[in-house]
Amino acid sequence: MPKNWTENRVKNFITSETEESLTLEYKAAEALGKSEYQKHEITKDVSAMANSAGGLIVYGISEFSNLDKRHLPEKISPVNRTELPREWLEQVINSIRPRIDGILIHSVNLKSGEADVVYVVEIPQSHTAHQAGNQKYYKRFNFQSVPMEDYEIRDVIFRQQMPDVNIKFLIEAKDTFDDEGNFSGAEYNLIIQAKNNGSAFARYVACFVDVPVKSLVSIENKRSVKDGGKYYRHRLTNLNQEYADEVFKANFPLLRSMTMSWKIRLKENFTNLENWTIKWKVYADNALPKEGRIKFGEIDTVDLRSKANKV
Known about the structure:
CATH architecture of the largest domain: 2-Layer Sandwich
Number of helices: 5
Distance between the termini: 31 Å
Number of domains: 2
Helix content: 10-25%
Order of helices and strands: HEHEEEEHEEEEHEEEEEEEEEEEH
Radius of gyration: 21 Å
CATH superfamily of the largest domain: Schlafen, AAA domain
Strand content: 35-45%
Oligomer: single chain
Shape: globular
Largest sheet: 5 strands, mixed
CATH topology of the largest domain: Methyltransferase, Cobalt-precorrin-4 Transmethylase, Domain 2
Number of strands: 20
């Protein structure tokens, strides 16, 4: 997720027509208010996100009303921070029981007025089930917050006894050399890092990453090309792990707080695809799968090239 939220980043949801998903929800300014119903709705939506895969709720973007564009962002719908300050929203969210650790509320100033803001609420996936203000449990399903079944509540409560694998992306730029040691150009790699933040180790990890075909140096299996030729699906597991200069071909369990990584070679012109999206989904033993998406332009770059070769 972006480190710094700005008006341009918020508007990018609209210009790029980013649809709502399991981990993303838009709410117009009218969703925030001091009535008991509105406060219960806030706690319902936030707790549902935490009970599912975590994600973002953006208060201050309205959706299209017509059915063919439903769940797509239409325009900025500013929140008045003098009437509904960030501290008030934080207080409402903290009424969820038990409290959700790690929530971040970003207040994004808008040029349309001194009091105009958008609140971006960043919600982590929780290790237990959370109850909304109406004493009910909710989850994310088909773009909505819906009540949870008893077995689903139990599954979430026992998450702490399961692995909790999170995915992070980096782009690596480095020098390459020929057999005689002469500089031969730059190499760019997409690094996918999987970290286990859970209390239990993951015996088996599988990560599916869909990367735009235009950004890839090579395609190994044409059957893995998806979405009409736009994306290539990489199937990454802990059965082929790289560590330093070694490659593990056997099962390599992901212990608690441990990180493993995979590398995908990119073309030099991948920077022209900054608005293209990478989609991912990760499985770890019997834990619920996680999924998400990120744009090339949002991924940090680690530049390992020498200064002489950057010119």
